[in-house]
Design goal:
The chain is of the alpha/beta class. It has 8 helices and 7 strands, in the order βαβαβαβαβαβαααβ. β1, α1 and β2 form a beta-alpha-beta unit.
């Protein structure tokens, strides 16, 4: 990634993700929306995603158990995804390759000497604190304590982000959000795909059996990024080694379009909830309630 752009925007938001592609899948429309509005969007990715499953046969030799070059390849994929989303400030935590993808929970890769899962918490948080000191974001976005779905690197990203916020003291972001999906959204998807041959929820009968999903009352913000659904779709395509054309994301996008790709939800973990709408007062702006002027209108 090229040198980070000069920080001139009044609004500054920091996203902390575990692997390349996580930023797009979970928060791509939000990132694109704020970037288009002139906010300074910073993405910190904690690993190169070296243990990812390769879905491009011609690149299978890059796998961790072969040439072990997938991480370097995914840097280019992430660059392309960020370009599609309009995100110009991307960093790897501690520099590219400082921490390694730990693989799924319980695998031997969790014990690799550089596995992010094994990283000293205060050391890793200190690296993120350096970014906070430089960027001074008012808002930080990361995962919940379970890393959204239980991946060790996602859990560690949560721990590192929250510890960095704690260490930041007076310069800490005013608001911290965790990515979320309302349970009713999951249930709608399960119903819509119940008879489909490419059902992404196959084998799941109850939304409560999934490791994610939040009641409506626990959601704090609904970001409408439908205007940027195509940008998110392009970013998904950029992560070709990880997300094949048959992936459930493309299935959902084809069936629900912008409503699926563009609507993203968050729980508020730190800070005061700002003005919102609807029965639960969901915010439509992650800066809601903060005295920070918008660079440009945040219309969806």
């Amino acid at each position: 990634m090229s040198e980070a752009p000069e920080i001139t925007s009044a609004r500054r938001i920091l996203f902390v993700h575990a692997h390349p592609d996580d930023e797009t899948i979970g928060t791509g429309a939000t990132m694109a929306r704020y970037a288009a509005a002139g906010a300074h969007v910073t993405l910190v990715t904690c690993t190169l995603g070296e243990e990812g499953e390769i879905h491009v046969p011609a690149l299978s030799g890059l796998a961790a158990n072969q040439a072990d070059q997938l991480g370097g390849y995914r840097i280019a994929e992430l660059d392309a995804a960020c370009a599609a989303l309009g995100v110009r400030d991307h960093r790897f935590l501690g520099g590219a390759g400082r921490f390694r993808d730990s693989g799924m929970m319980g695998l031997p890769t969790n014990d690799h000497p550089r596995a992010f899962w094994r990283a000293d918490l205060d050391f890793a948080a200190g690296l993120l604190l350096d970014v906070i000191r430089e960027v001074r974001p008012q808002v930080l976005v990361t995962y919940d304590p379970n890393g959204f779905y239980g991946h060790p690197d996602h859990i560690q990203a949560h721990r590192v982000a929250m510890r960095a916020v704690e260490l930041a003291g007076e310069i800490a972001p005013s608001k911290v959000y965790w990515t979320a999906v309302p349970r009713r959204v999951i249930e709608s998807g399960m119903k819509a795909f119940a008879e489909s041959s490419d059902n992404p929820f196959a084998g799941i009968d109850n939304a409560d059996d999934l490791p994610f999903g939040s009641p409506d009352e626990e959601i704090a913000a609904e970001v409408d990024g439908r205007k940027f659904a195509e940008a998110k779709f392009a970013a998904v395509q950029a992560h070709a080694t990880q997300i094949p054309p048959t992936n459930w994301l493309f299935t959902m996008a084809g069936s629900f379009g912008g409503d699926f790709m563009g609507m993203e939800y968050y729980r508020l973990a730190v800070g005061e909830k700002g003005p919102g709408n609807g029965p639960y007062g969901w915010e439509d702006d992650l800066f809601a309630g903060l005295d920070v002027p918008a660079t440009a209108p945040l219309s969806a």
